[in-house]
Amino acid sequence: MQLSERKEKILAAIVERYIATGEPVGSKTLLEFSSLPVSSATIRNEMAELSRLGFLDQPHTSAGRIPSQLGYRYYVDRLMNRYELPIQEKRLIEARLSDAGGEPQQILEQAGQVLAELTNCAVVSTTPSDDNAVIRRVELVPLGTHTAMMVMLSSSGILKSRVCRTDSELNLELIETFYNIVSKHFIGKSASEVSIALIQTLALSLGSKSLAISPLLVTLSDLAQLTEQTQLLLEGQSNLLNYTDYPNAYELMEFLRRGEPLTNLFSGHKTENDTNVLIGKENFYRELQDSSLIFSHYSVGGKDSGALGLIGPTRIDYARLIPSLKYLTEIVGSIMSDTLED
Amino acid sequence: MQLSERKEKILAAIVERYIATGEPVGSKTLLEFSSLPVSSATIRNEMAELSRLGFLDQPHTSAGRIPSQLGYRYYVDRLMNRYELPIQEKRLIEARLSDAGGEPQQILEQAGQVLAELTNCAVVSTTPSDDNAVIRRVELVPLGTHTAMMVMLSSSGILKSRVCRTDSELNLELIETFYNIVSKHFIGKSASEVSIALIQTLALSLGSKSLAISPLLVTLSDLAQLTEQTQLLLEGQSNLLNYTDYPNAYELMEFLRRGEPLTNLFSGHKTENDTNVLIGKENFYRELQDSSLIFSHYSVGGKDSGALGLIGPTRIDYARLIPSLKYLTEIVGSIMSDTLED
DNA sequence: AGTTAGCACTCTAACAGCGAGAGTGCTAAA
DNA sequence: TTTAGCACTCTCGCTGTTAGAGTGCTAACT
Lengths: 342, 342
What we know:
The structure is a homodimer. Chain A contains twelve helices and ten strands. Chain A has a five-stranded antiparallel beta sheet with strand order 7-3-10-9-8, sandwiched between helices. In chain A, α5 packs antiparallel against α6 (104-119), α6 runs antiparallel to α12 and α8 packs antiparallel against α9 (210-228). The mean pLDDT of chain A is 93. Chain A has helices at 5-21, 27-34, 40-53, 69-79, 87-98, 104-119, 172-185, 196-205, 210-228, 249-258, 260-268, 318-340, and strands spanning 56-57, 66-67, 122-126, 135-142, 147-154, 159-165, 232-235, 276-279, 291-300, 303-313. Helices cover 48% and strands 18% of the residues of chain A. In chain A, β9 (291-300) and β10 form a beta hairpin. At the A-B interface, β4, β5, β6, α10 and α12 of A face β4, β5, β6, α10 and α12 of B. The structure holds a DNA duplex.
């Protein structure tokens, strides 16, 4: 639906004013604020119409108007002037991310913190998932006579480790056998190829050594699963507590902590244009229906591999947050790409 | 101060009742609940006296009594019957922790989750800090022609990694030189010995290779700092939102997130008996003065190295939480000890 | 001397009533 | 089509009232 220019101006002004103050906007307030060359009565008429069309809500008769979900949607899709980050700010952020440590998790953690500070929202992100990722390197570091730490690095840069305990003594021969098996059967394989079945057949084929080495292989398989699993990182949850809009922040925070729903949402809902904006009831999950979720996928080596998302009340500054998020996903993607392929 | 037996019974009953219900306890309620062989009038007299002595507070004249800070203190020190975890529960927890992955952070994360579920409190823990920890192993994994991932394992089992970018190409010779330097100058050294000065003199002594190798040495030094730094882990913060006692949970959650204050508190305040209990205003930090903090140090190899702590309102079930925390610290310590020295 | 019944007293929480203020929708005039 | 004006509605904050919970005190009882 296309609104008249004047209606658009009024809607935009209401959205922006409400985002800024959190108070319902009345016709008089709007008049001073928006400097339209009309009287408050005209604005009242237009507002009444916008209400009838479903773009505005009214908490009660004698209150001003607040944007409805549809109002926000129209604003985001057609009215909003994106507000880009100043260039110095961008440089600053870039420096912070470059300094994060270089691993995907570290970069995302830092990006999450930056975004949380910048936006006062909760920030979620998923670690890169790459269907073509393969095991790149496995190290076994003996810690004692029967324990060792195993470290696995995947081609997507994910590093995972576990401590492993063996029944028989961890001597040089055993370690060497392990490394042989690894380089022969695991390096270059994807995690999904490391099945229990493979582990079992391998163990069997080793005969007498089987018993000694199988704990190592089991750990190896665990690690392969871990490197493949997408992880959800969370930053700035406490920001949500500053919004009076959330009477029960607990439910939302528990939802975020659970992780899988969001991970699924992100992987199912590929970025169509650049940034996805889900407002209020547009969200599938009940726990998010009082919130807006803005998310965008970052791409490593030209391929979408994970996402960053912002969560706040529907009353957030879309014009500022969307470009910020977009910038962060771009820079995260480019830093990760740099690290992995040069 | 020693209270009469009857006063103690009444105080204990009030504390327990208030912990259970969160409502001020009146003389009549107490009568049904505690089954003392006296009338409500007598209880009233005793309660008045306990108020005068400072063990009870009264929100207002016509409300019941609630324990004062002193009341909780007396209860914790002398009245409380510790409520041990049932043995099956202990076994279950043990299994969960053994399965966590073996690294200190992984064990602590799991322990934190378990405790958060068990207690409905926020759980904090510090990673083991060991003044005698030394660098055990360093691995350099090339990722591209100019980037590599460096992984460092300390003798206390801490694993840290960073991605490092070099100006000149990462060829085999460079890598070999790096490993030589590492094994000669760094393995077996403590992190504090890895000073900037050392890095600089080393770089200088290498002459022509100096420029190529110095980014690697800088990263090495960064990693050494990281492995040495105590980290604060946080679980179950959202539990705090379930207590009506916290009008501004935001402040507390930000305090927990900041980390250093608690890290300092733990390291400064060594475990005297077995478990420390700081109630309300007994806490040094303003942000904790509406809360109780229970913490206890775990020991790895017979030496205190980190701590686990619970944070909740002063109105928490000390009798149940203290033994739970104590058990968790013991098991965390024993699992970590097992891993590192066998 | 300690305990108890009884009672007057105090304070809160909940509810109703009221007025001020904000903002609307409608009407009639420009 | 716009605007001034006005009656109307609804919230918010204040006040007053009442019911109920709980106390502290006194006087009687064991």
